[in-house]
């Protein structure tokens, strides 16, 4: 990670390889550089639509960037965001890590506590992005372009190349607070975007209010429907057991259907293989 002093001297347009005039023109016409649609949320465990207590289906707004801005955001991700160091507990949006590596960390731990951040991306406002990069030592021009080219309608949009990386960076301060407590008490903590999981060989119930208070202090809301404390949970879509991890039954059935249909491309089989190969003991 660059030092604070060197960050303060960085010229954003030069790093991205775009002229200041072109970037300013995109910002002036930012609405034309995004698409927008609404998706109904589906529960990963049941495959059914998620609903509120009154039966209304929950929805999320998807806002992917279009080709020109998407290309610039990809350069922002590769040339700036990916170079900001993240702790080992972060698995979402990190090379060679996934929901599988996230879940694997908790295998064998008897006590597991999981919670989910509610409307995580929309809760990250433009001002938070700007202030975070100033706090990290970048100059105000840099923070201005970073904010204007990665947020839309005042918040982090879902569906762009930069949003996951930015959410990781915004949550860093909270991550480190949680890591400190967990390291001091022999607790495993991982985060996969907005899914937070804590586990241990010992009962960690007394730490749950502490975890929740630290998370709430960061300004995000917790999805209490997804907050559970038990053993052998489904963590980020993976079933966790004492001596192995595995896919949920619906994925196994989909893989079997692919085999029966003799499909040439078998995404469910590939995914299932990636999960199960983590259970094989490495030869010395």
Automatic annotation (TrEMBL):
User: What biological processes does GO assign it?
Assistant: defense response to virus
Q: What Pfam families does the annotation carry?
A: RVT_1
What reaction does this enzyme carry out catalytically? DNA(n) + a 2'-deoxyribonucleoside 5'-triphosphate = DNA(n+1) + diphosphate
Report the EC number(s), separated by commas if there are several.
Answer: 2.7.7.49
- CDD domains referenced in this protein's UniProt entry, alphabetically: RT_Bac_retron_II (cd03487)
What residue stretches are annotated with the Reverse transcriptase domain? 1-240
Identify the InterPro entries for this entry: DNA/RNA_pol_sf, GrpII_Intron_Splice-Mob/Def, Reverse_transcriptase_msDNA, RT_dom
Q: Which GO terms describe its molecular function?
A: metal ion binding; RNA binding; RNA-directed DNA polymerase activity
> Which branch of life, at top level?
Bacteria
Q: Which UniProt keywords apply?
A: Antiviral defense, Magnesium, Metal-binding, Nucleotidyltransferase, RNA-directed DNA polymerase, Transferase
Kind of enzyme, top EC level? transferase
Q: Does the keyword Acetylation apply?
A: no
Family designation: Belongs to the bacterial reverse transcriptase family.
The name on file for this protein is RNA-directed DNA polymerase
Q: Which organism is it from?
A: Flavobacterium nitrogenifigens
